[in-house]
Amino acid sequence: MEVPYISSPPLLPHRPLLALHTISVSKMMSKTSLFPRCRNINSDTLVAKKEAVEGLEEYGDLKTWMHKNGLPKCKVVLKERPSLDAELRDIHYVAASQDLKAGDVAFSVPNSLVVTLERVLGNETVAELLTTNKLSELACLALYLMYEKKQGKKSFWYPYIKELDRQRGRGQLAVESPLLWSDAELSYLSGSPTKDEILERAEGIKREYNELDTVWFMAGSLFQQYPFDIPTEAFSFEIFKQAFVAVQSCVVHLQKVSLARRFALVPLGPPLLSYGSNCKAMLTATDGAVQLVVDRPYTSGEPLVVWCGPQPNSKLLINYGFVDEDNSYDRLVVKAALNTEDPQYQDKRMAAQRNGKLSSQTFHVNVGKEREAVLDMLPYLRLGYVSDPSEMQSVLSSQGPICPVSPCMERAVLDQLADYFNGRLAGYSTTISEDEALLSDPDLNPKRRVATQLVRMEKKILHECLKTTLDLIDQLPDLSISPCPAPYTPTLD
């Protein structure tokens, strides 16, 4: 029988909101310092335990400090709720100070109270040059706030930095990013591809740290202000990593602004604002300010919510320390590749490209659309199973996107898919029912809880994919038929 090769546009690689990049500029000076590493400075970190976040009383709360420095009258108030972790201070959050209706401006933060690369590097042209060369915006922002924190109360940003300390890189009622978890805590994610993403991100942060001195010497404003405090001598890697994660949890990606202003730290923004996947309100740049226009009505005292972008739960956990069980953007990735040892590899590569696919193709399995994802994978895998040269020529010469499929080939393709999904499910240390039993425990460790929520949702997606595959096997005309042998099967990862 002939089965259409479903055409689709090429899938564009997803660039995370908070992507990491390695600095590409060369070092300009030696790391030799005139001073030893500052190990005892209590301002080294941007995240802190209860006892380390004190001394803000003379400034009032963050909002009071902002009003003193140009924040106009607004319709929000700072409130407080207990932390999930008893060792950490209560969490502040932004709530409506009065009833709001959709379209109301909740607040408008003047640019003088917003931290951007333009401010950090002292020159918009330099900022754009460095970011164009794949310099991590997060590393620059973290480095700037670390230097500012070393000034203590002398820093203009002292009240804001203290608020970041209090939040400790946490989302609302959530936990620290797993980038700060111990190895034992990361084991909660065993079997999940998110664990590998975390380890890769941590390596990226390490590479950033190793290049910090380059940033410092090229950023004239920082170099002039701290001529003897070379970054890797002033701050240990652990301190930088903590600061990086704290910045990552609250950075805002502004639209329709210059490169030097697109990544911004906005007091009253995240993490004081909650993130929601089903919300459409965003912090937006206006003339001279960053404002929030709400997308729904709020009653006085209700926490405000903003959109976090189309991010899957794995990114929400890594970047902000929470997952959203109602996240319509959640997805898993399946990587497939044609066998490069196949004598017909080049012909198959051409056929795949003609239908919008690559020789190594990434398929996104979106929650609720698992069947569509499996059906999208099948034509690609069928192409990999073609072994007869005459059949391959028929594929290449056909007027439409047609790939001949025999019943035994279809059984082989579906069996490979079923084995793949079963293998991924077997890689987890718990079953869905065991996850649900864990989540029913009100005293479950907060990090274990958020990790269990994530892996349970991943397993649900995989189970749906497996169910679709088994249903397709059941629809074959003859279930007793043996799968066709294929010497050069495509790979699934």
From TrEMBL:
Q: Name one GO molecular function term.
A: protein-lysine N-methyltransferase activity
A Pfam family name for this chain? Rubis-subs-bind
Instruction: List the signal peptide residues.
Output: none
Say if the entry is tagged with keyword Transmembrane helix: no
Q: Which UniProt keywords apply?
A: Methyltransferase, S-adenosyl-L-methionine, Transferase
What are the residue boundaries of the Rubisco LSMT substrate-binding domain, all occurrences included?
A: 340-462
State the InterPro entries in the record: Rubisco_LSMT_subst-bd, Rubisco_LSMT_subst-bd_sf, SET_dom_sf, SETD3_SETD6_MTase
PANTHER family listed in its UniProt record: RUBISCO METHYLTRANSFERASE FAMILY PROTEIN, UNCHARACTERIZED PUTATIVE METHYLTRANSFERASE
- Name listed for the protein in its UniProt record: Methyltransferase
Originating organism: Lithospermum erythrorhizon (Purple gromwell)
